[in-house]
Amino acid sequence: MSRAIAIVGAGPRGVGVLERLAASAPEIGPDGLTVHLIDPYPPGSGRIWRHAQSPLLAMNSMAADVTMFTDDSVVCDGPVRPGPSFWEWAQELRANGDPDALGPELAAELRAVTAETFPSRRLQSAYLSWVLREVVTRLPAGMRVQLHRTRAVDLADDGDVQVVRLEKGGALRVDAVVLASGHLDATPTDDERGLAERAAADGLTYLPPEQTTDSDLSVVPAGATVLVRGLGLAFIDLVVLLFEGRGGRFEPDGDDLRYVPSGAEPRLVAGSPRGMPYHAKPHYRLRAGRPPLPRFFGPPAVDPLIASGGPVELGAQAWPLMAKEIAWGWYHELFLGHPGRVRLDWPRFAERFAELGWDSTAMHDLLAAAVPDPVDRIDLTALDRPLDGVRAPDLAALQPLVRERIAEDLRQHVDPAHTPHLGAFVAMLSVYGEVTRLAGSGVLSARSRAADLRWWQSFFNAAASGPPGFRVRELLALSRAGYVAFLGEGMWVDVADGAFRAGSASVVDAPPVTAHVLVDARLPDPSAARTTDPLLASLLARGAVSEEVLREPDGTVLRNTGLIRVRPADGALVDATGAVHPRRFAVGPHTSVKVAGAFTRPGMNAQSLRYNDAVARAVLHSLPGARAAAA
Question: Which residues form the signal peptide (predicted)?
Answer without folding.
Answer: none
